[in-house]
Design a protein that fits this description.
Length: 556
Amino acid sequence: MSSKKLLAVVLVGALGAAACGANDQKPSGDAAAKPDKGGTLRVLSESRTLNFDPAKSQSLAITTLGLVHRRLTGWQNAVGQPAKVVPDLGDTGKTTDGGRTWTFVLQDGLKFSDGTPITSADVKWGVERSFAPAFGGGLGYHKDLLGGADYKGPFEGKELDSIETPDPKTITFKLTRPYGDWPWIASTPAFAPVPKGKGAEPDYQEHAIASGPYQIQTYTKGVEVKLSRNPNWDGSKDQVRAGLPDEVVFQLGQDASVVSQRLAADSGDDQFAFGASFASPAQLAQLQANASAKSRVVTSKSGAVAYVALNTQKAPLNDVKVRQAFQYAVNRSAYQIASAGTAALAGDAATTLITQGIEGREQFDLYPSKPEGDPDKAKALLAEAGFPNGLENLSLVLNKSNNQTEKAEAIQAALARANIKVTLRTLEADAFETETNLSENPTYDLTLSSWQPDFPSANANIQPLFATSEIGKGGYNISRYSNPEVDKLIEEAQSTVDPAEAGKKWAAIDKRILQDSPVVPLIYTRNSFIHGSKVGNFFIADFPAYPNYLQVGISK
């Protein structure tokens, strides 16, 4: 996801609470408290590491990395509004040739934490670092567009000719093809500045030079990372970050269930803390029974789309009618219960590929049925496809680390009603990735996954999951869906600079892909997070389904 991303992130298995209210128009409890400047904010994290190297990071623009590093552009997100791209180090970019060439102008007077000026050359160097094999793992949307297939980074003295810096404030990107979402791409981690010539050491993430409101004061592996104020950050030049706390302390390697209990108890330093991981169904049930804790649970309105991926390259799933039968065979109500106990806790039923909170998204349902599905309709489609007795010996492969067994069993039981017999197969995380993302000849028939885009555009919903280029080799097209017509439509939409026009094209692509039924959307998962009573301005906007770390502060 990663995009990952991402892993074009995949931000997997998001669960949430009912309308505990914290994300209604009037946030409930202490989430509505106005924070003051000062104090120490604590973040309780399950992770044992934090990556502050922008070349290696997949961090969303409003979470951890954004505290230390600014980017060329940023996100403005608020409850009830679509996220918007806004200026950060530079403006939001201009193109005069239909999206093939983009020029950005930096603000005056920007400085790194060591006091040196931030220039366009530093932004270029930061992007070039992301091409070095030693600094891989970050989001890579920009790499092919900059023609960097054979480029290995700047440490051997070579530059990317597709990035020009005619003066210290101006940076121009010459892309291999028109790309309307380039201002969003410029908000991904690789577009954070790194002082030219710096950052060759493998542990740069532990002492990265900051451009945001905080700098790394101490980095104790597996234990704690402490951020202190960057004395050279100018808040008047930053509309993305509030920079309220004096310090931000990440406590690493925390057990999620213990974090939930500590924050519910709300004593000592935990009053000034929040959990970085979303609460599980069991934790939510406990929190609902505690009036104080319940008032401090903040829930996303929506989130990642959870779905069943069908391996379209493997018989009998290479038959579109067979795949369409799965749209009616699934029981979304049962999946919701397996995910979080109730439909309200789990998230709304999903019928589109573009997630809620993305501008231009259109709501539709090509396969309308009751919430529990329509097994008779599924059987009829299978019969039309030549399988009057249903399907046997299909495998549904699972990632052990995602704790998907109950959800998979709900899918298995629903499919059985339509005479589709599925065996569950659970793999360790590495083996799962090899099978689904890397293998050229995978043996699975079905798998469960979820996806939240890396940036607020339908482009980031559609292209990573359904472009032919994303099959195997680490890509996230795990349905192995390949349609030349759709590939062409994706490229046309990506080339469209006007957001409204692009949105219409992406909505049409959403429908076109679902006509082929490579995946079965299940729900738009919700995330819930708990915070201490002294944490203020803790909110989750319509996108993404995570708190905006950059706006949180401490209330007196």
